[in-house]
Structures are given as C-alpha cells and as structure tokens.
Amino acid sequence: MEKVCDIPIEEDIESLYRYLRSRGVAIWVTENEGRQEIWVKDPAAKPVVLDCYQRFKEDPGVRERLGEVVSAQPRPKGSSLAMQLKPFPCIAWLLLTILVAALYTGFGDFQSSRYFFIIDRVQLPSGDLSSRVQSLLFTLQKGEWWRLLSPAWLHLGLAHWLFNSLALWIFGRTLEVLFSRGGFVSFILGAAVVSNFAQYLVAGPAFGGFSGVAYALVGAHAAGWALAPSMRMWAPSAMVIFSIVWMLAGMLGVSDQFGVSFANTAHFVGFWFGLTSMALWLKTSGKKDGEGINGV
Questions:
Q1: Is the pLDDT of residue 189 over 90?
Q2: Ordered domains of the chain (ranges, CATH)
Q3: Using an 8 Å Cβ cutoff, are 125 and 137 in contact?
Q4: 271: nearest Cα among 234, 239, 240
Q5: Residue 158 buriedness (CB in 10 A; 0-12 / 13-18 / 19+)
C-alpha cells in the first residue's frame, strides 16, 4: 500500500473516490487523527491519483463534472453482500468453502466428519506422540495429504463456524490486499498446515476449525500495529488486543471453567506464524514506519 496524501476530515471527496473506483483504480480512504488519508495499492497509481485530487480540489468545474458522471452511472447489480465480497475473491472463496464443509459435515455431527480430521480417528491410534507420528506418516503415505489442511474446514457447531467466518472477514481483507491473491492464499494454507500439525502433535486428532488460521491473521495485524502503525490499514487495535487476551485465557484454562475448550496449540502457533510472516513481509518490502510509506 502507498499513501498518496492526507486531507482535512471535512473535505468531501466521495465523487472523486467513486469515479476513480469506477475506472479500476484501487483507492482506499482511511481516517487518522482527525484527517483523511488516501491510499493506493499500486505505487504507480500514486501520481495519477494525486493529480486527479489536485484538479478536483482546485477546479470547481471538475468537481461538478465528476459529480454528474458519478450520478449518471447505473447502480451496480447484485446484492450488497455480493458487492462487498467482489473486491476480495480469496475471502469469498474461503467463506464459501468453509460453509460448504460445515453443511457437508453437519457441523461435525455427520459421519462425513471423519474425512476432515488429520488422521482417520476410527482406524488409527493416536494415544501418545509416537503413535501420532506413525499414524500421520501412514496417512500421508496413503496419499491423503489433504488431511494436513482439512481440519481447518471442520467446524464443530454453528457458533464455531460463525466466529471463525467473522474473524476471516474482519482480519483477512487487509491481508488479501497487502499480500496479493497468491501471497494471501499461500499465507492461509501455510497457517492451516502449521497450526493443524502442531495441535495434532500436542493433543491428538480430536480438533477442527479455522481458528488457527484466524489467529495467524490476528498475529499479522499485531505485527502491523507494532512495526508499521502509520499504515493505518490494520484491524482496530482493540479487536487485536481482545483476541490476544482471549487466546491467553484459553491457554491459562480460564475457558475450561465455563465448559469451553479451545485448540490452544493451534491458536498459539497460528498467532506466531502470522506475527513472524508479517514482520518478514514488512522488512523485505520496506514497509516499516519511515520506509516507503511517506505521504506528500
């Protein structure tokens, strides 16, 4: 992401925003300390957007014509949900596949759930670490490599599915923009494999859910706030802090007092996967504060 400029909070640039968006320019407007900040995904678009803004600001005729052009544009067809998902195809695909898997497995109640666990719990032993390793190796030798991923798509209840879907939507959109689609998909799949594998080794195969990946997203936002807070593209810090406290509550056994058990190892490992991945990305892309995100 590249910051173009910041402008007074009271300045109305809705018509300019809609016009540039309609022309395929990926532009975002955020608020920071009482001012609006204009951002673009492609650094090459920065001079174009800046020039458009200067003309929009200085020439009333340009503002009037843009307002007329935007008003004359037909309203986009489709539901508001579809329009919100359109800029995030990876998020949309993930949400759809998670829902399909939840329905297919009856939220963990159907026999089909056995195909989503990291090993076949009915046929293979998993009582200790040695048997877990041997069972997993046997599973992979059979060609069932997909089981390294599939537990993330298994949700054991409606609330479980809803929470993880909301976490993907809240924390995932910024990362799809930052990492690009290929990078974002690699991040998601990597987080799923690492968190599933760690949880299995520590606690066995009786787990499922996207929460290991969700905490990788949380970890990425935590690294963003720590290393590049001025980018202002991260999820609200209160949400990040609450998610971390929630993770720690599970690890300390607080949730067990209320009859709720978490895949704590998956949460912890996923969080650190996201934290380190984002830290490395910020370092290699030169996006830490003061490096490559200067305004005008």
A1: yes
A2: 2-72 (3.30.70), 81-285 (1.20.1540.10)
A3: no
A4: 240
A5: exposed
